[in-house]
């Protein structure tokens, strides 16, 4: 289904969502893999088409053609004779620095038109050219994923080498790849090209990396391509601040050739552009007035500073003139920069618009800037109306939205193919500046237009939630026409469903009003059917991974607002069960709508519904699904055949089959003959099965405690990706290490974790969360082997990074600190251990609570090291406090409580409080005999220590009887 449903709280939903997410991806990827294998027997063009269908690269071709048509004939010719460019075309050496060229310039200086001109010129010479345009206004054109998919497709589209297609086919067969997987295959395909390839990358200043604020990852991609093939050349175009020589030097290892666009370089182009724009956009009657055309042309040429965008905006403003006087007034003291002209235009807007229009302008600009993709005109129309919060929002819908948007914001907004765009990314940067950057007097007058990102996201996210509660969904999985019909009937439903959580994630702490809306929606009858619709939506557009990440982030932030994680958990559990009860009552048990929901609940039952319930909740939630329906095992054969032999199942059938298969597997607790046969066949044909399917099988064996079988499957899966450096390879290694650790095969587990750690450090970096988890697990198995010094080193390194990246009070940080203190303790470095235990205990008390299990264990071990240093009074007080808490929370015979009793007895004995020690030893012994048995080693140890205490009291007969 979707992470939105299956991962509402990371601790409980993480595992199951990952498995279910893979099921949904397996449908498409199994189909795609089957098609690719068959395509090897047909024409290459068919295979390429399928590659494009799977990759879904951003459409940069249309954008490129738009730039080509916009370019004036005869402009951009200066680049052809530029020495740096000529050298790049035919480099004197094959070093990476000689094959890289950077072209930088300010906003609006024509870099994108220049990029399109370079591309067209190279193509006219029959040179292989691949290209990409970054755009901060479009989600698919912001990051690394977009450029990698685009370059992959452009290479595959032009290739006649079957090996390139096979490399990509192999990638698809392994399952859904991460960006790093795609990058690796891109490098391998690039390495196969035998003729010169020219890569043109525009807008690198608009590249956005989710992990950091630099273009480091993009430059690493460029360097990887340059190193993969000496026939490859790359030109980067962007603003100066991201293409500084020292930035490129740090990555490339040398300073490449660079061209900085200035007014002298583009003077002739500016002159031509000014003339063409005046003739095209200024009233011809005005231009016939003596000297007026020359005055306009002279001012624009002299003041432009080489910025085509500035000229375009000025002429657009001048075109509104209806008299010579108006033209002359607008020419007087023109603004000298883009920021200046934006201030000028917004001041004009303030004077022209009334209060209602100003509010509309603010919302249009804000929502256009923060939208997760380009909004359709109708979507922007609904977003604005819904933002009012009124139940009669339809009264606020614009009757002529295109006209209204352009009349009010036409200086800053374009509408093309029904989509709303900013005229330039610089508008966004101008309006989203920090508050202290709006210091000019003119800025203070137009501050009302400043886009404060968090409140804007909150407004749009809230509007999305409102709209979702208004729609009538029906039952999309049961009605083949419902999915398309919903999008036609509810014009804002696709955007609101897909991006509500994205906006709420960027909206700061969850406010009470939004929390109430979310609660009300979860409790509405629409909620369940919306789940079905969203499942189909994310399966259709391939956004399940991104949506899952967004929802995980949303859940992790719940405790920052007024809607806490636990109430959210309870609401969700309650609604899931109530919906099934409602469907049983309304439709009956055998109805597809009931069966699909039943299957869905089977999938999440183990991970969610059996979890802890909030004691303060007003609801008492059932621990069982209301009713378990039967599903014959013979249906497994039908399901498997449907998945393997029907690669083009409609969306509602794909999800239905996936739910049923997952439901069946989750209910099986023993290996029946049909399942044994099915999994035996899967292992035998593992070479043709996506790696994710094998991971599903391995996880199934784990649930049955068949660790040997699980390990066998995981090793088969590892063999499929062994030759590649990709995240899934190291995920499998990590899983193998965990299975081996569970089997107490610590040496083998150590080897797996070491390989995993080394690979993740290379691929993801030392500060990645997965890398840190591998380091932690490696230290753990070293600890089990009593190799405390080695474990200490790793724990220290991990802790230092976690404190810096996650913060000193993050739960993962505290966990590492606790185990570092433990290995110091077990090396008898008691003073060092004490310091860390104290610090950890203090932070756990603040963040987790004084009665949390982790906090109590830190207190236990702090008391231990205090006792080992002879600080018995403090140790005793801490022991008594911990024992009292555990007895109250867990009971007097809980194993942890018995350990507290034992330690308190030890400390009392060391203080020669023999009578009190004897009493505590006897309590501990009686408890261990009942809980663990009389022959348990811990029970026998307690008996021996009791005898020792009696001996210390000189009760020798009693002591001898204990022995």
UniProtKB/TrEMBL annotation:
Residues annotated as domain GPI inositol-deacylase winged helix: 359-433
Nephrocystin 3-like N-terminal domain: residues covered: 74-239
UniProt name for this protein: Uncharacterized protein
Matches recorded under InterPro entries: GPIID_WHD, NPHP3-like_N, P-loop_NTPase, TPR-like_helical_dom_sf, TPR_rpt
Superkingdom of the source species: Eukaryota
Sorted UniProt keywords: Repeat
């Amino acid at each position: 289904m979707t992470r939105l449903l299956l991962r509402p709280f990371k601790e409980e939903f993480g595992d199951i969502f990952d498995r279910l997410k893979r099921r949904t991806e397996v449908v498409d990827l199994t189909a795609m893999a089957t098609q690719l294998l068959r395509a090897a027997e047909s024409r290459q063009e068919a295979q390429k088409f399928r590659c494009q269908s799977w990759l879904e690269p951003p459409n940069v071709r249309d954008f490129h053609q738009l730039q080509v048509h916009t370019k004036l004939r005869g402009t951009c010719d200066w680049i052809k004779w530029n020495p740096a460019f000529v050298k790049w075309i035919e480099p004197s050496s094959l070093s990476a620095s000689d094959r890289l060229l950077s072209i930088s310039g300010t906003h609006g200086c024509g870099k994108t038109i220049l990029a399109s001109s370079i591309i067209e010129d190279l193509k006219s010479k029959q040179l292989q050219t691949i290209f990409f345009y970054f755009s901060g206004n479009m989600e698919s054109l912001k990051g690394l994923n977009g450029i990698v998919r685009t370059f992959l497709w452009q290479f595959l589209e032009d290739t006649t080498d079957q090996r390139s297609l096979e490399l990509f086919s192999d990638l698809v067969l392994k399952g859904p790849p991460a960006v790093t997987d795609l990058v690796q295959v891109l490098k391998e395909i690039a390495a196969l090209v035998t003729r010169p390839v020219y890569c043109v990358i525009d807008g690198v200043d608009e590249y956005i990396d989710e992990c950091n604020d630099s273009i480091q990852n993009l430059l690493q991609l460029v360097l990887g391509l340059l190193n993969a093939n000496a026939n490859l050349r790359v030109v980067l175009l962007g603003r100066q601040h991201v293409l500084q020589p020292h930035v490129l030097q740090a990555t490339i290892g040398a300073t490449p050739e660079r061209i900085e666009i200035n007014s002298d370089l583009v003077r002739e182009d500016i002159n031509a552009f000014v003339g063409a724009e005046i003739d095209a956009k200024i009233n011809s009657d005005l231009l016939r007035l003596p000297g007026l055309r020359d005055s306009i042309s002279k001012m624009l040429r002299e003041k432009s500073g080489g910025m085509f965008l500035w000229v375009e905006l000025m002429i657009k403003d001048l075109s509104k003139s209806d008299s010579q006087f108006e033209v002359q007034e607008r020419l007087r003291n023109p603004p000298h920069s883009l920021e200046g002209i934006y201030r000028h235009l917004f001041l004009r807007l303030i004077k022209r618009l009334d209060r209602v229009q100003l509010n509309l302008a603010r919302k249009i600009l804000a929502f256009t800037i923060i939208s997760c993709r380009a909004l359709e005109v109708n979507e922007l129309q609904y977003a604005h109306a819904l933002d009012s919060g009124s139940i009669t929002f339809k009264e606020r819908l614009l009757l002529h939205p295109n006209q209204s948007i352009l009349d009010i914001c036409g200086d800053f907004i374009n509408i093309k193919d029904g989509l709303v765009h900013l005229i330039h990314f610089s508008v966004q940067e101008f309006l989203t500046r920090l508050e202290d950057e709006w210091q000019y007097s003119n800025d203070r007058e137009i501050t009302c237009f400043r886009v404060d990102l968090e409140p804007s996201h909150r407004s749009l996210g809230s509007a999305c939630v409102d709209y979702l509660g208004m729609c009538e969904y029906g039952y999309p999985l049961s009605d083949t026409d419902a999915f398309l019909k919903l999008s036609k009937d509810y014009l804002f439903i696709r955007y609101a469903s897909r991006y509500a959580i994205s906006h709420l994630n960027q909206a700061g702490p969850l406010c009470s009003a939004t929390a109430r809306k979310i609660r009300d929606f979860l409790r509405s009858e629409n909620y369940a059917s919306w789940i079905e619709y969203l499942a189909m939506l994310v399966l259709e557009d391939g956004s399940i991974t991104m949506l899952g990440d967004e929802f995980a982030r949303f859940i992790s932030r719940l405790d920052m607002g007024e809607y806490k994680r636990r109430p959210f958990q309870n609401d969700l559990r309650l609604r899931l069960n109530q919906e099934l009860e409602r469907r049983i009552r309304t439709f009956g048990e055998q109805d597809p709508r009931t069966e699909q929901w039943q299957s869905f609940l089977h999938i999440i039952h183990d991970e969610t519904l059996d979890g802890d319930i909030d004691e303060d909740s007003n609801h008492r939630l059932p621990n069982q699904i209301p009713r378990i329906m039967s599903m014959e095992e013979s249906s497994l054969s039908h399901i498997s055949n449907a998945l393997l032999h029907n690669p083009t199942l409609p969306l509602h059938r794909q999800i239905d089959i996936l739910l049923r298969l997952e439901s069946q597997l989750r209910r099986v607790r023993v290996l029946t003959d049909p399942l044994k046969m099915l999994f035996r066949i899967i292992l035998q044909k593992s070479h043709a099965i996506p790696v994710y399917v094998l991971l599903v099988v391995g996880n199934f064996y784990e649930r049955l405690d068949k660790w040997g079988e699980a390990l066998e499957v995981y090793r088969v899966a590892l063999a499929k990706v062994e030759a590649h450096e990709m995240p899934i390879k190291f995920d499998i290694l990590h899983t193998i290490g965990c299975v081996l650790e569970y089997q107490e095969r610590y040496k083998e587990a150590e080897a797996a974790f070491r390989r995993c750690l080394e690979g993740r450090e290379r691929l993801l970096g030392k500060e990645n969360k997965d890398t840190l988890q591998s380091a932690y697990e490696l230290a753990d198995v070293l600890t089990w082997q009593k190799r405390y010094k080695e474990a200490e080193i790793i724990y220290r390194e991990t802790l230092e990074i976690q404190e810096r990246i996650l913060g000193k009070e993050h739960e993962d940080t505290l966990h590492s600190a606790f185990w570092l203190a433990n290995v110091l303790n077990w090396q008898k470095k008691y003073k060092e251990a004490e310091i860390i235990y104290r610090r950890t205990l203090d932070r756990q008390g603040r963040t987790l609570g004084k009665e949390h299990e982790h906090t109590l264990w830190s207190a236990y071990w702090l008391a231990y090291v205090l006792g080992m240093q002879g600080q018995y009074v403090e140790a005793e007080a801490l022991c008594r406090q911990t024992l009292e808490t555990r007895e109250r929370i867990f009971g007097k015979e809980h194993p942890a409580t018995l350990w507290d009793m034992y330690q308190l007895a030890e400390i009392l004995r060391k203080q020669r409080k023999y009578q009190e020690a004897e009493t505590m030893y006897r309590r501990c012994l009686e408890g261990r005999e009942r809980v663990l048995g009389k022959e348990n080693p811990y029970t026998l140890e307690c008996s021996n220590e009791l005898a020792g205490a009696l001996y210390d009291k000189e009760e020798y007969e009693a002591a001898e009887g204990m022995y």
